[in-house]
TrEMBL record:
This is HD superfamily phosphohydrolase. Keywords: Hydrolase. It comes from Chloracidobacterium thermophilum (strain B). One of its GO terms (biological process) is dGTP catabolic process. Pfam families: HD, HD_assoc_2.
């Protein structure tokens, strides 16, 4: 059949037409082992331990970003913007492949690997041994360099790079709606069709601008992202689970170096990950969520009491509790830490694995804080009858009020909650 349709909870139906050259290439890329692997990687990492519906995958999100890019380009063309077919095809390819480099549980494992998924994306695309590389080069040998330049933001026309990655891009357009729907919250809802309807291109510099009629919709979108970070991505229980996973891997690394890890699978990708041996592209691509969960299930039977306890707590969802210390001084935080460390030592629990510090923060909108980085700005028209182009925080008091923030929390076993709260109460009083 010429048409392929994907049923999608956000966009309803995503359609590709094999008779169109770029659609045929997109279909071939979707069918590669590297892209199919994204079905086995959760979009929101460990969020399922808090939001039971958050089982959606990077595969679904990547299709959604590609579809959103198609909608954006079609809307621009209908509004009179002249677009080159090759540029449109490249933008859709970049949208589809932008997350191909994610490891198990998405962003969580980046803390373990100390590597960025963006770097792995470029490595996978550029590795001649991958099926993705083969599909791209067989379509056009020049595609690779151009596609990587687009993913890095080093591409002209500029609006295509902005739609791939900016503060108003197709990645965010999709993940806010998708993550909001799948977690069962309404914080991420905003009017995507109206934003796309309001987009146009400044012909003097090939950059995206938002017409005046779209300013309120963009405000709503920026606040949706702000609330999703505060209420979902930085949820205290989710962050505790992430920190516990990182602590588990730190313990496994320690035991491996001491020759005491009871379940080493010598020579495997996971073994190399734990021992710090660089992974080949093929080894990295062999890892998904199931590999990590499999090892955690083995670790709960490890003779080491720390590793087995952390693994058991994680699998049974006996998560560490969190104490928000954002408002406390450094001295007060040190006192709370000292009280908790003392209690942990008395119980025989090493503080380095049972007292975890969570430091999270975000800049909801960069514009006012990076005045010399116009690529991080959202440019809007300030009036419908005599429009001038201005950075959105100059027009919107609501956006101007979006301030950077930082959350600091201490995570520890539930047994220590009373000690933590008593210590804080004594400091505050």
């Amino acid at each position: 059949m010429a048409l392929r349709r994907y049923s999608d909870p956000v966009h309803r139906i995503i359609t590709l037409d094999r008779s169109l050259p770029f659609d045929a290439l997109l279909m071939a890329l979707i069918d590669t082992p590297e892209f199919q692997r994204l079905r086995r990687i959760r979009q929101l990492g460990l969020a399922f331990v808090v939001f039971q519906g958050a089982e959606h995958s990077r595969f679904a999100h990547s299709l959604g970003v590609m579809h959103t890019m198609t909608l954006a380009l079609d809307t621009l063309q209908r509004s009179g913007v002249r677009l080159d077919a090759q540029v449109c095809g490249l933008a859709r390819l970049a949208a589809l492949l932008h997350d191909i480099g994610h490891g198990p549980f998405s962003h969580v494992m980046e803390k373990v690997l100390h590597q960025r998924h963006e770097d792995w994306t470029k490595r996978i695309i550029g590795d001649p041994a991958t099926a993705i590389h083969g599909r791209l080069t067989s379509h056009d040998p020049q595609l690779l360099d151009t596609l990587i330049a687009l993913l890095e933001g080093q591409f002209r026309p500029r609006f295509a790079a902005q739609l791939v990655s900016s503060q108003l891009d197709c990645d965010r357009f999709d993940y806010l709606l998708r993550d909001s729907l799948m977690t069962g919250v309404s914080y991420g809802c905003y009017d995507l069709p109206w934003i796309l309807h309001a987009l146009t291109v400044d012909t003097t510099n090939d950059s995206l601008i938002v017409r005046a009629r779209g300013v309120l919709a963009v405000e709503e979108y920026l606040f949706a992202r702000y609330h999703m970070f505060r209420r979902v991505y930085f949820h205290h229980a989710l962050r505790a689970a992430e920190n516990m996973l990182v602590a588990m891997f730190r313990r496994a690394v320690t035991l491996t170096h001491e020759g005491r890890l009871a379940f080493p699978l010598s020579g495997t990708a996971m073994d190399k990950l734990i021992t710090g041996v660089p992974l080949t592209t093929a080894e990295y691509l062999s890892l998904d969520d199931a590999d990590v969960l499999f090892h955690i299930k083995q670790w709960q039977r490890d003779p080491d009491p720390v590793l087995s306890d952390l693994a058991g707590r994680f699998l049974e969802r006996r998560l560490f509790k969190s104490l928000d210390v954002s408002a406390l001084s450094s001295e007060a935080i040190a006192e709370v830490r000292a009280a908790l460390e003392s209690a942990l030592v008395k119980r025989g629990w090493p503080p380095e694995f049972y007292l975890l510090e969570d430091d999270a923060g975000d800049v909801p909108y960069f514009g006012p804080y990076l005045p010399d980085a116009p690529e991080r700005h959202i440019i809007v028209e300030d009036h419908q009858t005599h429009p001038r182009q201005r950075e959105i925080s100059e027009v919107s008091a609501a956006v101007q009020g979006l301030r950077p923030y930082r959350l600091r929390r201490l995570c520890f076993p539930e047994d220590l909650r009373d000690i933590a709260h008593t210590t804080v109460a004594s400091l505050v009083s």
